[in-house]
Design a protein that fits this description.
single chain; 770 residues; alpha/beta; 7-stranded parallel beta sheet; 7-stranded mixed beta sheet; globular
Length: 770
C-alpha cells in the first residue's frame, strides 16, 4: 500500500519537504523540535481511514489525523529531549493544532498526572483517545507498508517503540500533564511563548506552501545605495523650503543611525507631520538592515487601511527605477490588509489566486506594507491564519507608523511584546510619530534635535473654543465665518457627521462627505478625487470622521475638529497647511453636544481623555505649532497617571503562562478592533458589478472541487468586500439573509444607500467604527 498526504503527493515526500522548507525559518536552538514537529505532523495519515477519505472523500472521525500525530510527535520529543523538557509539550500542542487555531495545553490533557483515572479526562479528550487507539491498531496492521518511509525520515526505531507500547497514548498524556503542571510554577517563561509561536508558524506556513504546490522564489531586496541614488536624481532640483527641511531630517536620521545602529533594538523618529517620515523611515530601515547584516524583511505597519495604498505607492515609486522590480514585483513588495488584492507577480511563475493569497499571507516578500491588526495580532494571538507569518518577523526591521493610534490600555502590553520580540527573534523596530506617546520611551531617538523642527514650523495655529455648542448653532457660526478657503470638519460619530453634511450641502460650495458609512471602493475613489482638487487649490469642504486623521495626504486651508483626545487633534492639524504652501492655517477645536448636552466625543473616547484635553487647551486662547511638542508631552504625562493597566497586565500574564484559550484574558480574546456584537456585515448590491459577482458567488457554492471553489471564492471575495459595510443590527431587519450573509438587493439601494453619505440610518446612532 502507498500512502499519500494529498492527491498525487507521497506522504513521505510531503513530510521531508515540509521539514526542508521550514528548517531555516527557525533559529538554531529550535531546529531539533521543529524537525520532529515537521516529520511527525501528518503521522495520522498513515492509516487506511485517511487514505480512504483522500481517495473517496468519505470523512469520518477515524480519518482525523491531528491528535494521533501530536501523540507520536510528543512521544518522539520525550525520547529526544527527556521528560523534563517543555519542548515536548510545545511540540504536542503545535502538531495538535496545525490545522486550526491554538488552544491552551490543558484543553487536551488530563486534569492530573498522579493516580490517573478515566474521570480525569475531559469528554472530548476521551473520544480522541478512543479514536487514536483504533488508528494505532490500523497502523500496526499496515506497518510493513510504511517502515521504509520511516527509515527515510529517520524515525523507524521510534515507530517500533511507539507501536509496541499498548498504553502509549495514556503514558504520553500523563508525562505531558506533569510538564504542564510544573510549568505553572516556573518563573520567566516568556521565552516559551516565542519558541512555541516560532515553531508553530514555521510548521503551518511550510505545510501550506508545500500542499499548494507553489514553486517558491525567495524575496528580493534593494540595496541602500541603490535607492539613495534614485532619491538623489528625483529630488536634486527641489528648492522648496519644506523639502529642504525634509532633507535635513532625512540626513540627520541616517547619520544618527549609522553612529548608533548597534546600541539599541528599538529606535524612534519623532518629527512634525508632513516632513517625509514615510521615505525617511523606509530608507532608515533599509540602512539598518544592511548595517546589522539582517536577513529578514522590512515590515511597514500603519494604523488604517485608508493610508496603506498611499505609503505603498510612495515606496513603489522608488522601486520602479530598479529594473528587476518590474518583472518581480511580488518578491520585492506586497501590501497586506483585508481589502488588498491577492496579486503576487514574479518573472517566471504565474501563481493562481489561492497561491498568491498564501504567499501574501505568509509575507513572502522583501517589503511588507500592512496594518497594525495584521502585525500585532500576529505577535499576540492564536489564529492559524495570522500566525503563518510569525516567522517572517525573524531578523526583520519593523517600521511602526503612529503607534499612539493604539488604544492606550494596551500600551504596556505592546511595549512588553515588542521588547520581547526583539530579544527572541532578533528583529529591530523603528517607531515613527509626530506625537510620540508614552510607550517605548527608552527607544533610541534618531532625530534627537526634533524639538528644533517642531519650533521651526509655523504652519498652523490651534484655537480652542470649548464652550458647548449644538449642531444648529455650529452651522450658523460656520456659515457666518465662511471664507474662500478649503475646509475640513472632523466629527466623532457618523450620525453627527451626516447631520452636519446635510446642512452644509445647502451652501453654494462643493462639499464632500467621508466616513466608514460609505462603501470601501467609493471611499477610496473619494479620497483620490479630494486630493486632486486640493492640489489644484480648489476651495472644497470635507465633512469627515476620524478616518481622515492619520497619514492621509490631504492639505486644507482650515480644519475644525470636534473635541477629541489631544493626539487626535494634533493628527488633524497635520491635514492643515501640510506643505507650508499657504498662509498660517487655523485649526479650531469646538465642543459639539447632542440634545441632552453630552459631548459627541464621549461616546467614542469616554470622559477621561476628553477632560485632560479640555484642561490643557483651556490654559491659553491659542497655541502656535511650535507649542505642540510641549503640549503633547503634557498630555501624555497626564494620561499616564490615569490609564488603566489591567488589560495589559492580564494579557502579559497570558503570554507568560501560554494561556491561549482558558479565560476572558486568554490570548484568543486579544483584538485591536473592538468587536461590537450589535454590528453585522451587509453586502450592498450597489451596481451591476456587485450583482454579477454575487451571482457568481451563488454558482460557486455548487462547485464540488475544493480547489476550484477556493479559487473562485477568492476572486469573488476581493470584489464583494468592497461592497460590504458593518451596520448596526437594529437597522438590518429589512435586509435579506442569503447563503450565510445579509444582502441588500439592488432594488433596495435607492432606499437604503445615499451616494453622498452612504448607508441611510433611520434612527439615532452614536457608535463609530474607524
Amino acid at each position: 500500500m502507498i500512502f499519500y498526504s494529498h492527491p498525487d503527493k507521497l506522504l513521505v515526500d510531503h513530510l521531508l519537504e515540509v521539514c526542508d522548507k521550514g528548517i531555516n525559518k527557525v533559529s538554531n536552538e529550535l531546529k531539533r523540535p521543529f524537525k520532529i514537529a515537521a516529520l511527525c505532523h501528518d503521522f495520522g495519515k498513515y492509516t487506511t481511514f485517511f487514505q480512504n477519505y483522500l481517495n473517496n472523500n468519505r470523512r469520518s472521525e477515524l480519518s482525523n489525523h491531528g491528535f494521533i500525530s501530536a501523540i507520536f510527535a510528543a512521544f518522539v520529543s520525550i525520547k529526544e529531549f527527556g521528560e523534563d523538557s517543555y519542548l515536548s509539550l510545545i511540540v504536542y500542542n503545535i502538531v495538535l493544532h496545525h490545522h486550526g487555531n491554538l488552544e491552551s495545553f490543558s484543553t487536551n490533557l488530563p486534569t492530573r498526572f498522579k493516580r490517573i483515572a478515566m474521570t480525569d479526562f475531559p469528554i472530548n479528550l476521551l473520544n480522541k483517545i478512543d479514536i487514536g487507539e483504533k488508528q494505532i491498531g490500523n497502523i500496526k496492521e499496515n506497518k510493513n507498508y510504511l517502515i521504509n518511509d520511516f527509515k527515510l525520515i529517520g524515525l523507524s526505531d521510534e515507530l517500533d517503540k511507539f507501536l509496541d507500547n499498548d498504553k502509549v497514548i495514556l503514558e504520553v498524556l500523563q508525562k505531558l500533564k506533569k510538564l504542564e503542571s510544573k510549568l505553572s510554577f516556573t518563573l520567566n517563561k516568556d521565552n516559551l511563548y516565542f519558541y512555541h509561536q516560532e515553531i508553530y508558524s514555521a510548521l503551518i506556513s511550510s505545510d501550506k506552501i508545500c500542499a499548494s504546490r507553489i514553486v517558491y522564489e525567495s524575496p528580493l531586496y534593494s540595496s541602500y545605495q541603490e535607492i539613495v541614488e534614485i532619491k538623489k536624481k528625483r529630488f536634486q532640483d527641489d528648492s522648496k523650503q519644506i523639502n529642504k527641511i525634509r532633507e535635513g531630517i532625512f540626513l540627520n536620521v541616517i547619520n544618527n543611525l549609522e553612529k548608533n545602529y548597534n546600541k539599541a533594538n528599538i529606535f524612534s523618529i519623532t518629527a512634525p507631520t508632513g516632513t517625509g517620515k514615510t521615505y525617511t523611515g523606509f530608507f532608515a530601515a533599509t540602512r539598518l538592515r544592511e548595517l546589522l547584516g539582517l536577513t529578514g524583511k522590512i515590515i511597514y505597519s500603519l494604523p488604517f487601511t485608508s493610508i496603506i495604498d498611499q505609503n505603498y505607492k510612495a515606496i513603489v515609486d522608488i522601486l520602479n527605477s530598479i529594473e528587476p522590480y518590474k518583472t518581480n514585483k511580488g518578491r520585492y513588495i506586497i501590501k497586506h490588509h483585508n481589502l488588498s488584492k491577492t496579486d503576487y507577480k514574479t518573472e517566471y511563475h504565474d501563481y493562481s489566486g489561492v497561491q498568491s493569497e498564501l504567499l501574501i499571507e505568509n509575507w513572502e516578500s522583501g517589503i511588507v506594507v500592512t496594518t497594525f491588526v495584521q502585525l500585532f495580532e500576529t505577535i499576540i494571538g492564536t489564529r492559524n491564519r495570522m500566525l503563518k507569518k510569525f516567522n517572517s518577523l525573524n531578523d526583520s526591521v519593523i517600521l511602526i507608523d503612529e503607534l499612539q493610534s493604539i488604544d492606550i490600555k494596551y500600551y504596556n502590553l505592546i511595549e512588553y511584546a515588542l521588547e520581547k520580540l526583539c530579544e527572541y527573534t532578533n528583529c529591530r523596530i523603528i517607531i515613527m510619530t509626530a506625537t510620540k506617546p508614552m510607550i517605548l520611551e527608552s527607544s533610541l531617538e534618531l532625530l534627537p534635535n526634533n524639538e528644533d523642527y517642531f519650533r521651526h514650523f509655523n504652519r498652523t495655529k490651534l484655537i480652542p473654543k470649548l464652550d458647548r455648542i449644538n449642531i444648529s448653532d455650529f452651522i450658523d457660526s460656520f456659515n457666518d465665518d465662511l471664507q474662500d478657503k478649503s475646509y475640513l470638519v472632523v466629527c466623532n460619530t457618523i450620525n453627527q457627521s451626516i447631520e452636519i453634511y446635510n446642512e452644509l450641502k445647502k451652501l453654494d460650495r462643493d462639499i464632500y462627505y467621508l466616513s466608514t458609512n460609505i462603501l470601501p471602493f467609493k471611499r477610496k475613489e473619494r479620497i483620490e478625487e479630494i486630493g486632486i482638487r486640493l492640489k489644484n487649490n480648489e476651495k472644497i469642504i470635507l465633512i469627515s470622521t476620524q478616518v481622515i486623521e492619520a497619514g492621509v495626504d490631504l492639505d486644507f486651508d482650515e480644519v475644525i475638529r470636534d473635541l477629541a483626545p489631544l493626539d487626535s487633534i494634533i493628527q488633524c492639524a497635520g491635514r492643515c497647511n501640510r506643505n507650508s504652501s499657504k498662509n498660517q492655517g487655523k485649526v479650531r477645536v469646538i465642543n459639539l453636544v447632542n440634545e441632552v448636552g453630552d459631548s459627541y466625543g464621549k461616546y467614542i473616547y469616554g470622559n477621561t481623555l476628553l477632560n485632560i484635553t479640555r484642561e490643557l487647551l483651556s490654559e491659553k486662547d491659542y497655541f502656535m505649532e511650535e507649542d505642540y511638542f510641549e503640549l503633547i508631552n503634557k498630555y501624555y504625562s497626564s494620561v499616564k497617571k490615569e490609564k488603566s493597566e489591567k488589560e495589559s497586565e492580564e494579557f502579559i500574564r497570558s503570554i507568560n503562562n501560554l494561556n491561549f484559550s482558558e479565560n476572558e484574558w486568554s490570548l484568543n480574546k486579544f483584538s485591536l478592533i473592538k468587536n461590537n456584537p450589535d454590528y453585522i456585515d451587509v453586502l450592498f448590491l450597489y451596481d451591476d458589478v456587485a450583482v454579477k459577482y454575487y451571482e457568481e458567488y451563488k454558482e460557486a457554492l455548487k462547485l464540488k472541487s475544493f480547489e476550484e471553489k477556493s479559487e473562485k471564492y477568492l476572486e469573488i471575495g476581493q470584489v464583494l468586500k468592497n461592497y460590504t459595510l458593518s451596520i448596526p443590527i437594529k437597522y438590518c431587519r429589512s435586509f435579506v439573509p442569503e447563503f450565510g450573509m445579509l444582502v441588500l438587493p439592488i432594488e433596495g439601494i435607492e432606499q437604503f444607500y445615499d451616494d453622498d453619505t452612504g448607508f441611510i440610518r433611520k434612527d439615532a446612532d452614536t457608535y463609530m467604527i474607524f
